[in-house]
Design brief:
Blueprint: H1 4-13, E1 18-32, E2 35-43, E3 53-57, H2 62-74, E4 80-87, H3 91-94, E5 101-102, E6 109-110, E7 122-129, E8 143-150, H4 161-175, H5 192-203, H6 209-218, E9 222-228, E10 238-242, H7 244-253
Parallel strand pairs: 1-7
Antiparallel strand pairs: 1-2, 1-3, 2-8, 4-7, 5-6, 9-10
Length: 259
Amino acid sequence: MKTEKEFHDFLENGDKYYIPNLTIDCAIFGYHGKELKILLAKWRGLDGWGLPGGFIKKKETLSNAATRILKEKTSLDKLYLKQFHVFGDSEFRRKEKEGLSFSPGNNRYLLPKNSWLHERTISIGYYALVEYSQVNLMTDYFIEELVWQDINQVPKLLFDHNEMLSYALRNMRINLYHIPIGYNLLPNKFTLPEIQSLYETILDKKLDRRNFSKKLLKLELIKDTKEVKKIGQHRSPKLYQFDMKKYNEALKNGIVLAI
């Protein structure tokens, strides 16, 4: 939604184009400066931050809707995306929303009593992994600001989004042992210490260097590029990159990374 006219049309007639009472909310993770980041959105007229999301078009699949919502916020359409939970039982979602209002512009807009947006809403949670440097954050008439926030410094979020984020993070950490993830978070070429740092950051724990390298190399998901990264006069670690054929097979069939 880029204009006030489009915004008002959504509020008044959105149920003609979207499935009422069913939304997608996205925990979008990036990795930068050895920190795991989460993308937060600030809506115009609302005091606080939350996870980006949106409604599902009536002829849209769930995965296509999630991909569209992510592209609208990050400009990316090739990313790792996984559904992790359905939310509908929180007090916020069960109570009536009569009196809900929006103030995206200079004027306050109070929804009528029969608005389609007053009904209980069920949300499908997805988490996405994106390469931080490739993201182009894009706001619209409804979203005032998008920012990356360190996962350890997330404030109290709107609605039930803190609960959503906790579920997403826990699900991602569990999947880390069974699904490869680095391709969407690291540059094309990386060192073993860099990919170990990624895993340590996500898992929030230290890993044994030799054990991690040995088990990761044994999976044959990464290959030696025969290049080195020049850090200093006496430090030139090897550069690796993912073997995409084996990486995609692992995404499909799973792996066991016992670290």
